[in-house]
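[job 4471] stage=fold_predict status=RUNNING
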Amino acid sequence: MQFLYPTFLYALLALAIPIIIHLFFFRRFKKVYFTNVKFLKEVKEETSARRKLRNLLVLLCRLAAIAFLVFAFAQPFIPQDTEVKQGEKAVSLFVDNSFSMSSLSADVPLIEKAKQRAREIVNAYEVEDRFQILTNDFEGRHQRMVSKEDALSLIEEIKISPAVKELSKVLNRQQQALNTGKIENKVAYIISDFQKNITDIQDFKDTLIEKNLIPLQSVQEKNISIDTCWFVAPVQMINQTNRLIVRLKNQSDQEEDNVRLSLRLDGQEKPVGTFSVPPNGLVTDTVNITILRTGWHEAELNITDYPVQFDDKYFFSFNVDQEINILVINEGTRNNKYLDAAFAGLSYFKINNQNSKNLDYSSFNTNELIVINDLTTISTGLSSELKQYVEAGGNLLVFPSANANVSSYKPFLELFRANELNKFDKNERTVSDINTAEYVFSDVFENTNANLKLPVTQGNFAITTFGSRGEERLLSYRDGSSYLGKYKSGQGHLYLCSAPLNEDFNNIVRSGEIFIPMLYKMAISTAQDIKVAYTIGKDDVLETENRITEIESVYKLKGRSEEFIPSQKVIGSKVLLGVNNQIKEADFYDLYLKPEETLGNFAFNYDRKESKLDYYNEDDLEELVGSQYNILGITAEASLTTLVGERSRGVTFWRWCIILALVFLGLETLFLRLWKV
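[job 4471] inference complete, writing structure tokens
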């Protein structure tokens, strides 16, 4: 047996006080008159013996009461398998409040069981100890060390949250809080279901912190989730069939049949189909969407799945422009009649012809496609503006002039790290290969083996073949050289044709099955990933066009139940909006400067990381972390207060010492009042 505060044992010297009182207690005797003194000696001897016995018992009770009272202050204990740390303690508790903790244990949701365990841990410590209560939300108030009473209040406020953090980040946050004070005894607890996709704690090293894991297990459940969706085409078109790819995922080891998928678009819901999803597998399906109006659209995918339902909905939004703008830069005032005719046949496209000598550079970013038509030279100023345009996500198609100054084209093409033009060759050449795997010509032809009328050129520029330039050939000559090449630059594309658009040298304008789809697909293509949905906690930055005209104006985001001002950073014509974990609910959020004018619509979904219901049990955790963590696995009926108390202080006996001290004081009172002598 050991004592937590052994210095209190010096108080045992107080045992001498009742002994001294007992030894030097002189009682005044009263005279008693007897008519007959025959039995006086016998009465005196009997009374004296009883008094001595009573006084001796009273003395022993007093000594025992004082001794046990001293022992109670010294706090005796029997050490367990862990080292008992004396003094004030800093305790950090992490309560996992992610969606997976809403699953049922034997009787209640895991989150309620976790809060119960957290309360038991706090109650196992002393009033002078300090506590941190931490959740997946990583709130600022959870980074402070608080009193025992405040810690219990914070535990009561914990609710299920869409946030989810890897446990290594949790340990780092606990380490920061425990190291802020001067308390040497540091203890960390993690109460979680320990999903495998977030449990990465095996490499965390800190020997100064006692680390404890408390696993909670739910009833094994099945789950189907909507993993993601995306459009095949980067730009959605009005009065056209737009193909949406939807991916469903089975998170369990059993096949799921009759999974019903539906789509709600602009308030109207329609069934998509019924699917069977293999165990731990994916199912991808195409949903055809016909859009009847321009502007922003809100859409929602739904499946029927129980009991895990947070991932049964997937919100996404997209914008359909009023028109697609095309800018054609010509050498003189004469327009190319074939380009005008090609885009005139598509009412959705609006073409604008400008002279290369009189360009409005500020209008470049309003166009989805810019066509360089028959320019002899490209100035450095125009080269720089075109570079910025493409870097920002624009598409540039270049048809050089047959009389092009190769030396002026060279620095222009070097800006894009594209292959360069060499000498113009007037020999006839025929295009023989179409790259149908690339977006521009994908899904254009039902039968690529059909007798397509491919372009024939009467003259073209030889193009260098530097492997480092990253050219993707869309159309090639019979010898494999490039007729039309594609280069990615920033968020946009450069398309370079080796032949002029002039019909004297190039008859592509006569190949309608090639020319029209090529222009169409180039205009709506983009290298930028146009997001239709964002993930809460992951995508903290939104990008949109900057429409601020007044210095005092600020962007705001508004959902159905919340509204806030995001952080804002203007970069050229773009503005970056920082969400900074202000979104807590999956929903649609409107962007506006004025409440009556919606500038954008963003869809946010819950993180699918919690969809995988795969956990570590106690044995798995022991194998994963070894001896560097204490795994406190207890039954549902057991209390952590006793277990934690014994681990931190050993098997304590101070309560028994107080009880025994009171018992002996009671016996002393009984002896004095009831034992008459």
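[job 4471] summary: The CA atoms of residues 540 and 579 lie 5 Å apart.
[job 4471] exit 0
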